[in-house]
Structure formats: C-alpha cells, structure tokens
Amino acid sequence: MDVSHNDYMKWFKSNKEKKQFPKMIAVYLSQEYDMVLLAPFFVDESWLYYEQEEIEALSFDVNDEMLGESIKRNLNKFAEKNADTTKRNKKDWPAFKASNLKTVKEFETKFSRISISGLNEANIILAFDAETKSKNEIQLRTIISAYANNGELGDRLRKLHKAQIEMKIE
Q1: How far is Cα 47 from Cα 114, in angstroms, rounded to an integer?
Q2: I want to staple 74 with a disulfide (CB 3.0 to 4.6 A). Which of 38, 89, 100, 137 is the partner?
Q3: What is the total count of domains within the chain?
C-alpha cells in the first residue's frame, strides 16, 4: 500500500495528542488571619496562567492530611480556559477577594504565597516555590512526588512556609 506524504502528515496531525500543561495552584498562608487560601489556575491558549474565581479557604491550623488532600483537589481543578483578562485589575484578584481584607497592599503584606506546579505536563513531580522578600528575588523551592500521601504534602508545605517567613535572605 502506497501512502503519500500528505496522507501520512494528515494522519499524524489528527492522531496527535492535545497539548497538556503543567498544573498549577497558588497557596496563600496567614497565621495572623488564621487562613490558608488555595487558588486553582486556568491556562489559556497563549499559556497565560490565571487564578480561577473559586478559592478554597481553610483554617491555618488545619491538619497536614486535610491540607494535602486540598492541594490535590485544587490541582485537579486546573483547566484550560480562554478569558479576557485585559480588563482585570488587582482588586479583581480572586485570592484577595476571598481573604475579605480591605486592600490589596494589606493582603500582600499579611499573606505569604507559595505556588505549586507540575515540573512538566505529566505532573508526576510537584515543585513548591515560596516567594521571599529578597531584594535579589531569591525564592525557596522543594520538589515532591505528586503521588506522596496527603500528610507528606501538607507537612512539606508547612515546612517550606516556616522557612519562608523565618529565613533572612538578602
């Protein structure tokens, strides 16, 4: 059977898997306000990641098992969705709105942010990246298997957060 190059290319393109993206959530923690906010993300066709409107709120002292379960649940909410984000401003920020604080500045001061994302589209390894107040934009990172048990995920997040708020990084 003789198959033309064009027929082969059509077959190849039609059987190509849809592009997968690394999953991502942001976790905002504030002991002062007794809150952990988990924000799942959407990604659009231009690879722009943005927070979904529905934010999960937990108390700061939630146990590690429940925290890990929540991390997995919110990673599974990750989806592809196109939206016009050009008209959004900081006051539209879903995590800020979920905090019920009066100003974005207060939210950014009182909450620490840790992003959790797959290292690639297979999402087998998760990277936890903690922002610091470093003038040189140094961040803290830990990686863990996406298949780690819930308690391990929650414990790892807490340890990274402790380092994030206690370490002095120039």
Answers
A1: 20
A2: 38
A3: 1
